Amino acid sequence: MLKQAASKYQAFRPVGLTDRTWPDTVLRQAPIWLSTDLRDGNQALIEPMDADRKLRMFDLLLRIGFKEIEVGFPAASQTDFDFVRKLIDEERIPQDVTIQVMTPARAELIERTIESLAGARRAIVHVYNAVAPVWRRVVFGLDVPQVMQLVDEHVRLVRRLTDAHPETEWVLQYSPETFSLAELEVSLQACETAIAAWGEGRPIILNLPTTVENATPNVFADQVEWMVRRFRDRPEIVVSVHPHNDRGTGVASAELALQAGAQRVEGCLFGNGERTGNLDLVNVALNLYTQGVDPGLDFSDIDEVRRTVEHCNQLPVHPRHPYVGELVYTSFSGSHQDAIKKAFAQRREGDIWAIPYLPIDPKDLGRSYEAVIRVNSQSGKGGIAYLLENEYGLDLPRRLQIEFSQAVQRVMDEEGRELTAADLWRLFDAEYGVTRTAAPRYHLQAPDGHAGRHVRLAGECVVNGDVVAFAGQGDGPIEAFVSAIADACGVPVRVLDFHEHAIGAGADAQAMAYLELRVGDAQTVFGVGRDTDSLAASLKAILSGLQRATMDGSRSPVTFDGVPVGA
Length: 567
Prior knowledge:
- Helix 14 (384-392) packs across helix 16 and helix 17 packs parallel to helix 18 (534-548).
- The protein is of the alpha/beta class.
- It has 3 domains: 29-313, Alpha-Beta Barrel (TIM Barrel), CATH 3.20.20; 330-432, Helix Hairpins, CATH 1.10.287; 441-564, 2-Layer Sandwich (Double Stranded RNA Binding Domain).
- It starts with a helix and ends with a strand.
- The longest helix has 20 residues, at 144-163.
- The strands form 5 sheets. An 8-stranded parallel beta barrel has the order 1-2-3-4-5-6-7-8, surrounded by 7 helices.
- The protein has helices at 5-8, 37-43, 51-64, 78-89, 107-116, 133-140, 144-163, 184-198, 217-231, 250-259, 281-289, 302-313, 334-346, 384-392, 398-415, 421-432, 477-489, 534-548; strands at 32-35, 68-72, 98-104, 122-130, 169-177, 204-210, 237-243, 264-267, 330-331, 370-371, 441-445, 455-463, 466-474, 493-503, 510-519, 523-531, 559-560, 563-564.
């Protein structure tokens, strides 16, 4: 039992800012965004990103529209140092983008950090040291004057080293680490010391982190407004915040801090970071968007952003994650479905968005609203996916469940009855051609005997009744087949997601493959394949998806008991 709170923990103290102005502030413009996915986010990964994943993440951040990106901790590892050099030496940094790197207030690490940035057009050097009482007393054994001496000494070193490289436009970022736990007067003194050591009038970012979130967001907003008032009339100073999420209120802390006058926020895509994570930049940006504020960041293909982040971080995004989770635009409740359906029926193009249960139009993010039909729910057995798995061993991916539920809905609307498991299997087979799709005849070549890498695949298959010859290559047979069939059919095809499992065991085992395909520029469909050979099942699934999509983006007509289900 949790009985120790009264003696073990201490409540936070309010700031006492009785004339606070932030509660009535309405945000009308986006902040300066700083992505720290490649530094803070990368440090928090079980397996840090390698160079290829770092570059893929960097390119994603550029496509989204970030103009300030913290690219590493070059003094901490050779990998980070080399990555910073790669970006500079290979001229991968656009003219309107500024990179940032981080270093603790230690002389040898500062020197290594400045060395990593040689030749950069513009760079932010982020220096930090802890200022809160517990860190001063327990971690470093320093009193306040000694902390200020450390700040002065090391910021002066940054200035001396950067002055030796006038070809680069330098900006200092100073963070009084553990700001949220420190006395405001001490944090202010540390910031003023950094400003003086860097040089009055020179551009500087003062970054105020909730290194460990320890109070309600209103307290952090008071702390930020207290600091902002001291720097409001100094245009060379940008006040930034770096919220963490230890109390689960990182987004709220960031939004209230912006209301309190902060001009810049730091965080990661989908909130990756130490412990419970950093600020979720996507969440804040799209919260602004739903209030009529252009965030200046492009999340119009949110699923592609999610897939890239999951690949780079090797961490899944929760299906209920705001804006991006697989299920956030899905209604299971009949009353929710009814309200949404009625609102859509009444809405006219150009109307202000006002749809029950949907704070944002899913189409703005490349998504769509889906109503998942709960089949046989009164019997307690769940829905479509449960019945197909329980009776036929199918383990459908969530997004395939959503897609297939539309076909189920059309039949239920037409017939007005609940469908049995056998009905669902017949409908599933009619929709995806599981028993009708023929495996392609193919010849597979793997140079040097290394199957699965740089393979060549050639043969012929049947697409919509026509025999199609194909030949292609790729890093695996699926990639080779997709490349080949796309060329043969004259339409772009890309695999977005792939799931596979076995049904049965031993000689009777069969492989089930489910592939989500992007066919053409915009159409996304699932294909399903079943075969005793797992590769053949995957190739059948690709053909299944192609046969469900036509070149003009319409769907091939499929009927179930005389009812069109694939229109």
